[in-house]
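Exercise 7. Given the encoded structure of a 510-residue chain, write a plausible sequence.
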């Protein structure tokens, strides 16, 4: 069971009571509690210790061992209770076999740079796989942390077998405050929250509860509604909202969440015996297609190339249809440069020799192979965005301080006006985590998250038009002439130096 919750809901005490009762009545069971730090582990242990100390004298079972974090009954009963911290990491709970497990404030297991997955894998591997075990992970959310958020989203999507039980702030009757102001009126924001909760949960939040909310925001949350939403969420969305300044407004994210649709086909790009690009269906493929190529339609393919760092971003690419500003296909993969180039080469030819613009910052090998080795006929060559008359001198797209700022300005404008049509769930997920980093002083994914799809889309929109939109009818035009002119120069060079009958590095097409 996964329990994202508001603060002070009494869940820890309830879980300890349930575990204490089962250990007291059953022989040779073990209960393990893992807290996020030593202070919390000591506090939780004292809860169970009080349960034991306040039992009538004649009901207290004999103790074989009692320490600051462990209780063990004497034989023949032999049940055992222990409290640990997540900082033990990969060594956590080794040598134990708990049938009852309570993970406390698991959203904070990653504090101080710890890897929560090492701790979780270690303790989970110690728990027997049978129906009498109980696993409960509870926490006040900590934004989109790398562990608890992922576990909860996995459960909601059916990717794991856990059940999510969300406990909002308004269920706690202690969170009320007497109204003393005769002129007190509910605000528009509060009225919206009240209606949303009534419609979805059938619960009517009282005026006294909203008065407590106002008081707590002013006195405990520094006047920040975002901090209140984290510690006292009304919805699961509030609980996992990032507290940083976010790039995309909630209304924009809501629009694109509602636009998400599964791809029509999934697979990879292959090549036929005659040398033609073909789509190979494969449910585990890296290419998601919402619309196959349309004859005479013009497309651009924007590619955010991975740095190749373990745990870093994926290679991500979007195929954009010029006429509708629509993402008709998405590629996301972790492969070597040569494999990525093969996929892009075939994908570009399939989509009517689309303009391809790989980012050339971190891995120029992709641009080099695509342009010079594979001789793709329509690689994008970038000009200085502040000097349109300058000569394009390098294949691919270069993201720098100057271009990044304009890329994101265009992306924000296009999404705000709902001009972009995109159905990719991965893009919408990255929208949620794209925020202002006060240390790097730029917009980027929050720690542990990715922004490769965001950046690929930003590149794609720049390919379509380097200037802001005037209105919805101001369609975007890809800059294709540079790719073709450079291709002609290369053709002339290769014919001169390689011989007219050689086709080095080039696939044939029937």
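Solution.
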């Amino acid at each position: 069971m996964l329990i994202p919750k508001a603060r002070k809901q009494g869940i820890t005490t309830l879980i300890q009571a349930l575990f204490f009762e089962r250990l007291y009545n059953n022989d040779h069971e073990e209960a393990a509690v893992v807290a996020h730090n030593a202070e919390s582990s000591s506090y939780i242990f004292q809860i169970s210790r009080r349960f034991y100390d306040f039992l009538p004298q004649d009901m207290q079972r004999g103790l074989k061992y009692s320490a600051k974090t462990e209780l063990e009954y004497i034989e023949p009963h032999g049940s055992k209770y222990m409290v640990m911290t997540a900082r033990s990491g990969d060594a956590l709970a080794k040598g134990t076999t708990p049938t009852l497990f309570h993970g406390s404030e698991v959203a904070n297991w990653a504090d101080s740079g710890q890897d929560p997955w090492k701790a979780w894998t270690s303790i989970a591997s110690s728990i027997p796989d049978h129906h009498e075990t109980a696993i409960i992970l509870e926490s006040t959310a900590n934004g989109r942390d790398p562990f608890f958020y992922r576990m909860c989203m996995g459960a909601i999507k059916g990717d794991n077998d856990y059940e999510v039980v969300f406990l909002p702030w308004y269920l706690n009757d202690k969170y009320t405050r007497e109204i003393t102001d005769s002129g007190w009126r509910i605000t528009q924001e509060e009225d919206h929250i009240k209606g949303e909760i009534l419609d979805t949960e059938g619960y009517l939040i009282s005026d006294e509860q909203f008065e407590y909310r106002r008081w707590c925001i002013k006195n405990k949350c520094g006047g920040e509604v975002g901090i209140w939403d984290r510690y006292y969420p009304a919805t699961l969305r509030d609980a996992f909202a990032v507290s940083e300044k976010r790039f995309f407004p909630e209304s924009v994210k809501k629009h694109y969440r509602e636009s998400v649709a599964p791809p029509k086909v999934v697979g990879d790009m292959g090549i036929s015996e005659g040398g033609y690009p073909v789509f190979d269906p494969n449910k585990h493929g890296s290419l998601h297609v919402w619309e196959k190529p349309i004859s005479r339609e013009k497309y651009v393919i924007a590619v955010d190339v991975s740095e190749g760092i373990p745990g870093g971003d994926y290679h991500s690419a979007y195929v954009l249809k010029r006429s509708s500003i629509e993402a008709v296909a998405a590629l996301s993969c972790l492969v070597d440069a040569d494999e990525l180039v093969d996929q892009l080469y075939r994908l570009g030819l399939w989509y009517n020799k689309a303009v391809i613009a790989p980012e050339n910052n971190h891995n120029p090998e992709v641009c080099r192979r695509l342009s010079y080795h594979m001789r793709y006929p329509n690689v994008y060559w970038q000009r200085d965005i502040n000097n349109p008359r300058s000569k394009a001198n390098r294949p691919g797209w270069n993201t720098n301080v100057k271009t990044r700022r304009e890329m994101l300005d265009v992306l924000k404008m296009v999404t705000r006006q709902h001009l972009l049509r995109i159905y990719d769930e991965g893009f919408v997920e990255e929208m949620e985590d794209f925020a202002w980093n006060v240390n790097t002083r730029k917009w980027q994914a929050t720690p542990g998250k990715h922004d490769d799809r965001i950046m690929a889309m930003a590149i794609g929109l720049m390919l379509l038009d380097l200037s802001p939109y005037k209105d919805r009818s101001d369609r975007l035009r890809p800059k294709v002439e540079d790719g073709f002119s450079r291709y002609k120069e290369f053709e002339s060079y290769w014919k001169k130096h390689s011989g007219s009958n050689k086709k080095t590095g080039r696939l044939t097409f029937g």
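Remark. The two ends are 58 Å apart (CA to CA). Students should compare their own answers with the one above.
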